[in-house]
Design goal:
Layout lengths: L43 E5 L11 H9 L2 E4 L2 H10 L7 E3 L5 H13 L3 E5 L12 H9 L4 E4 L4 H8 L7 E6 L4 H13 L3 E6 L4 H12 L4 E6 L7 E6 H8 L8 E5 L12 H13 L4 H12 L3 H15 L14
Helix pairs in contact: 3-4, 6-7, 7-8, 9-10, 9-11, 10-11
């Protein structure tokens, strides 16, 4: 991740990078000490939500979970040690787990849990696994049949959503948009057609460009809220249209973590582009020798419609023509 405070479940995460404080050695697991035989100890993996800015939001249950853990895995041991010190927790064993080493740490964590240790996992802020490390670890633990529990905490996603003034009954989370190229264009087109409120993360230096690109894709009159420094002293919520937002952000030196909340698209009786138009464009591209994936990508970008919809039209077109789709050419996420 590239930014700091609001990581994970609710927050915009950090890229820990090099120079972490050396890991502490993991403490001993809880094993019977009376010498009597018994069933194997059963450990647990506990994901603990932490504050997205205001340390006063650390819950008593989170403090207890961190106290009870034999070892705490965290993005940055220095950052988490400060949090534990604030909570009055001393002597905790800390190990790093961030986006650069999550895969290599998974086996270590699973062995610890299997040996009966209680392993807590935190991100620098918010909930591990949401735009932060942790999701692959949880998937591996679940596959291994190991217990996984969650201590919920503050969420930048929900905090921004409920303060935005936009509909909250149906929403989706998009995380960070791709920075450039075809992937960014396709994601912008997908967001533009989304009828639910959409929550996105963005780095402060890219907010203006992203508001401009969203305005190009969605129309400048689409409503948006820009939330930054949530729960902190300089918290700010700006509300307006995408066009106004791009102007507001131009030349501003924004600081802190930023969450964008975008109003959903208006429902329409008929698609702006009919399937027959898409089918014609696909047929022309395929007849010119383009593979299905490339044709779908080009048509989706050209007409500003979701890739999945174009791929479904391509499937119907191929079925009508009696030819199978070229599996390797299918777009990501559309098979």
């Amino acid at each position: 991740m590239t930014t700091g405070q609001a990581g994970g479940a609710g927050g915009v995460g950090t890229d820990p990078g090099p120079g972490h404080e050396p890991d502490d050695e993991p403490g001993p697991g809880r094993h019977p000490d009376d010498g009597t035989p018994g069933p194997p100890a059963r450990g647990a993996l506990v994901l603990v939500g932490t504050p997205i800015g205001n340390l006063g939001d650390l819950s008593p249950r989170a403090v207890q979970a961190l106290c009870d853990a034999d070892v705490v895995y965290c993005e940055d041991t220095r950052h988490s040690r400060k949090l534990l010190t604030h909570a009055g927790i001393t002597g905790a064993s800390l190990r790093s787990l961030h986006e650069h080493n999550e895969d290599e740490r998974i086996g270590e964590v699973l062995r610890a849990v299997g040996d009966g240790r209680t392993v807590a996992v935190v991100s620098d802020a918010g909930m591990p696994g949401i735009s932060d490390p942790g999701s692959r670890l949880v998937a591996a633990a679940a596959q291994a049949g190991l217990p996984v529990s969650v201590v919920p905490g503050p969420s930048a996603v929900l905090t921004a959503l409920v303060s935005s003034g936009l509909p909250t009954d149906r929403f989706c989370f998009e995380g960070f948009l791709p920075r450039s190229g075809r992937d960014r264009r396709e994601r912008l087109a997908s967001v533009a057609g989304e009828q639910r409120t959409t929550v996105l993360f963005e780095a402060p230096g890219r907010v203006g460009a992203t508001l401009h690109d969203l305005g190009e894709a969605c129309g400048g009159d689409r409503r948006v809220a820009v939330a930054r420094e949530l729960t902190k002293l300089h918290e700010e919520i700006w509300r307006g249209t995408l066009a106004e937002g791009a102007t507001w952000a131009e030349g501003r030196l924004l600081r802190g973590e930023v969450v964008l909340v975008l109003d959903g698209a208006e429902p329409s009786e008929e698609p702006a582009v009919g399937d027959e138009v898409l089918a014609g464009a696909l047929a022309e591209s395929l007849a010119a020798g383009e593979r299905t994936r490339g044709a779908v990508d080009d048509v989706a970008a050209a007409f500003g419609v979701p890739r999945r919809r174009v791929y479904e039209v391509a499937l119907a077109l191929r079925a009508t023509a009696g030819a199978p789709t070229d599996g390797p050419g299918a777009p990501h996420g559309a098979e």
